[in-house]
């Protein structure tokens, strides 16, 4: 799932390549992706793309006062197309959800724009056309941005939340921008179990957590901002130390990275770095070890 660093990098990429261009047409290929009807998608045609920004894990494109807001969900992505097909796409079950056509920079140059796609059969990518980003329910409920939270504020947020730490830092209404991958990375850097109770963190553990949030996300941003959209996924994978590395050695201590699986997701962690050497029970119905 694209998280704070990737969405911020996509916004930066669009500010460089697309802002200042006129949207000539928007084609909807995946009917399930569009979540609003007023204003219609057609209202964007002929308007200038004037801004691109991030709100949590949402990409917000300002189109002359209207907002094209995108949540890429688990398997969505944005693809820049230097030679965009001019024929409207056929609605169907393929990965294409939405195509945005932009006016060419110079006369005679090939049409350009970008596609929003989503791999797999489970479709969660969501597109909104709104007059204000706050009209999007997911944005109106966002907690403070992860990069804007200081240590004291983070402590208050964690102590207000009962339950497992992993769930707390991925709850977008509590703190915005962190998802499954970077939460694994943050907890590894902080040397904290994903199943430790959020409201029972000591002052020293909270300080470690805050430092890990800031360094992990800012390091990822430094690697990714300035990259082309096509290279961002690979750059993200290259920087991961525990997430999606089950069975490989921990780069910090050399222990084997382990996994806990759930119905539709999983987490990865290092027992030596995070749980005092104790593997977490990977049984969905069991009481997980802390």
From TrEMBL:
Sample GO molecular function, one term: DNA-(apurinic or apyrimidinic site) endonuclease activity
Keyword check for Amino-acid biosynthesis: no
Keywords recorded for this protein, A-Z: DNA damage, DNA repair, DNA-binding, Glycosidase, Hydrolase, Lyase, Metal-binding, Multifunctional enzyme, Zinc, Zinc-finger
UniProt catalytic activity: Hydrolysis of DNA containing ring-opened 7-methylguanine residues, releasing 2,6-diamino-4-hydroxy-5-(N-methyl)formamidopyrimidine
Record-annotated FPG-type domain positions: 241-275
Cofactor(s), by name: Zn(2+)
One example of a Gene Ontology biological process annotation: base-excision repair
Annotated ranges, domain Formamidopyrimidine-DNA glycosylase catalytic: 2-120
Gene3D superfamilies, per database record: 1.10.8.50, MutM-like, N-terminal
SUPFAM superfamilies: Glucocorticoid receptor-like (DNA-binding domain), N-terminal domain of MutM-like DNA repair proteins, S13-like H2TH domain
Cross-referenced InterPro entries: FPG_cat (IPR012319), FPG_N (IPR035937), H2TH_FPG (IPR015886), Ribosomal_uS13-like_H2TH (IPR010979), Znf_DNA_glyclase/AP_lyase (IPR000214), Znf_FPG/IleRS (IPR010663)
PANTHER family: FORMAMIDOPYRIMIDINE-DNA GLYCOSYLASE (PTHR22993)
The family this protein is said to belong to: Belongs to the FPG family.
Protein name (Swiss-Prot/TrEMBL): Fpg/Nei family DNA glycosylase
Source species taxonomy: Bacteria, Bacillati, Actinomycetota, Actinomycetes, Geodermatophilales
């Amino acid at each position: 799932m694209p998280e704070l660093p990737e969405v911020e990098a996509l916004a930066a990429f669009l500010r460089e390549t697309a802002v200042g261009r006129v949207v000539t047409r928007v084609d909807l290929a995946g009917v399930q992706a569009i979540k609003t009807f007023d204003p219609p998608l057609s209202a964007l045609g002929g308007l200038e793309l004037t801004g691109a920004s991030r709100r949590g894990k949402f990409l917000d494109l300002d189109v002359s006062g209207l907002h094209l807001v995108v949540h890429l969900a688990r398997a969505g992505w944005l693809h820049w197309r230097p030679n965009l097909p001019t024929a409207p796409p056929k609605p169907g079950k393929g990965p294409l959800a939405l195509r945005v056509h932009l006016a060419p920079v110079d006369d005679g140059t090939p049409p350009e724009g970008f596609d929003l796609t989503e791999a797999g059969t489970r479709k969660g990518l969501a597109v909104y056309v709104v007059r204000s980003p706050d009209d999007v329910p997911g944005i109106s409920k966002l907690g403070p941005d992860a990069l804007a939270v200081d240590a004291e504020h983070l402590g208050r947020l964690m102590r207000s939340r009962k339950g497992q730490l992993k769930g707390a830092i991925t709850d977008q209404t509590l703190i915005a921008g962190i998802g499954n991958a970077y939460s694994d990375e943050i907890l590894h850097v902080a040397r904290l179990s994903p199943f430790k109770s959020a409201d029972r963190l000591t002052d020293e553990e909270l300080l470690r957590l805050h430092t890990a949030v800031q360094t992990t996300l800012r390091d990822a941003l430094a690697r990714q901002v300035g990259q082309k959209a096509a290279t961002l996924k690979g750059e993200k994978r290259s920087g991961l130390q525990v997430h999606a590395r089950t069975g490989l050695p921990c780069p910090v201590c050399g222990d084997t990275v382990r996994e806990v699986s759930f119905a539709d997701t999983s987490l990865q962690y290092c027992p030596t770095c995070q749980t005092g050497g104790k593997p977490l029970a990977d049984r969905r119905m069991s009481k997980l070890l802390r």
